Amino acid sequence: MGRYYHGDIEGKFMFAVQSSDAADRFGSIGYNNYLSYYFDEDHLETIDEQLELLEPSFKKVEKFFEGKNSWNTQQQEDAGISSQEMSNYSDYRLGLKIKECIIEQGHCSFEAEL
User: For all residues of the chain together, what is the average pLDDT?
Assistant: First the structure.
């Protein structure tokens, strides 16, 4: 069982790595029993700043995942990837989805399961 988000963008939060409120870091704060998010062009500067901070972790973990369908914590540790880097990787992917959605349709809204 996992936690999902749905709306203008859809996906699944990375198990045991990514918080349901991961999108808070991109400039909109979730609310309700579900976290409801709304982003528009006014958020692009914050999104770009966060993506820049997260990019080194994203690149490192993306390289680790090349050719893998799954992984375990021992492989992660052997590759020198911290839990924070794994979390940053998953947040980068979410932030990129949000940014692409805003660019395509001018806004992005979705709900995230708690």
Answer: 93
